[in-house]
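This part of the workshop introduces the protein records we will be handling. An example says more than a description, so a record of this kind follows:
>
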Amino acid sequence: MIKLQTSMGDIVIELNEQAAPVTVKNFLGYIEDGFFDGKIFHRIIPDFMIQGGGFTAEMAQDQTRDPIVNEADNGLKNERGTIAMARTNDPDSATAQFFINHKNNDFLNYAGKGNPGYAVFGKTIDGMDVVDAIASVQTTTREGMGDVPVEPIVITSAKVVSQ
């Protein structure tokens, strides 16, 4: 399990290493490096998802590890409270950015080679009230990017915690 301590409260996520071993190993590597500390939730779309792990409050990006293989065909669904990897149009392009689904997003699920989906690798087990609060903040456009919170929502700490 991991705890994301944010400027709006804590979110505890149970990772599913069995279903998404490559993704979980990648995510834990970023946590061990302290990569997420000081990053923000930079893309907030209510009734869709909250995305973070890529930018500082100044909208700067740090160097990431190499992209990982997309494990979206693991049987896990993009349901409310699940955490998944963000990526570009290339299915195998996920690095550090992740999102927490604010509602069930079936259209993000794996549906074959032509619709490779987004890899779910865990679920929120505590702190959905915080996810809901983050999803409700006012957003704007910054540095040419839309859906950015007006007031930065900072991940102050990301760490592995025991049950």
